[in-house]
Structure formats: C-alpha cells, structure tokens
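sorry to bug you again but im stuck and you know this stuff better than me. below you get a single protein, a line of residues and a line of whole numbers that encode the local backbone shape. mainly i need to know what kind of three dimensional shape the backbone takes. anything you notice is useful, everything is just below:

***
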Amino acid sequence: MTDIDELKRSISMSGTNRFGTGGVATKIEAARRVNEFGIHMALLNGKKEDILRKAADGREEGTVFYG
C-alpha cells in the first residue's frame, strides 16, 4: 500500500473489512505515522500462530504500508 489517503477513501472505516474488525482508522493512522519516518509497516492478523514467520515465508497474507 503506497497511498493511504486513497485507501481511506475506498474502504469503510467501520465494521469489518480486509483490515479486520473495528479500529481500522487507528491501524491506518499508525501506518501513516511510521511511514512518515520512511519505515514500512506490515498489518497482520496477530491472532494467528507464527504470523510473522509465515508472512515472511509467503504462507500468510497481510498488508504492507510502504514508507
């Protein structure tokens, strides 16, 4: 994801969507803040076991916000 403003215009900011349930605005704002420092942020399902390893290996999906 490279355009956070476009993302915010294209999704529902309440309820359930591809970014999970609720708190979407907070997740996207966190991505914007770290991206301002040139840091990429991966948004993953933290309830899944070994999610970081599986995402890095391509066995799980998430969204990367590029800084």
